[in-house]
Write a structure and sequence with these properties.
Mean pLDDT: 88
Order of helices and strands: HHHHHHH
Strand content: under 5%
Distance between the termini: 27 Å
Largest sheet: none
Radius of gyration: 15 Å
Shape: globular
Oligomer: single chain
Number of helices: 7
Amino acid sequence: MLLSTLNRKQKLKFLDLALHMVEIDGKPSDIEKRLLNMMLAEVGDNIISEYQFKLSEDLEETIQFFDVLDQRVQYIVYLNLIKIALSENFYNVNEHEFLEMIRSRFHIKDDMKQAIIKAVYKEKDLREEILEIVGK
């Protein structure tokens, strides 16, 4: 969501974080893979063609890249990481710790975290409602 508004380098660095997110608890699930594919489509073909599809060697460097960017970019990145984590309606301790580390580094306050989580659930609810409508 809103990944298309990021610039080229931000998109590539986001994909690094997203890949860490889906692999943090072991092998990515089918749902996580599908969501990652949707995010890849959103960032665009030009980004897909240059992305390596492997974990970056220096996660800290990737996080530092986002540390200095404006809050809007950080919110978009965090929102999409939350979306990955909640894709299966729960997230484990490793995912939680990773998200909390990102939140701390991006200086995202708890009320914004809650607003982002609420928005992700609203989007999921809307998607389910639409599927029910078209499935009837």
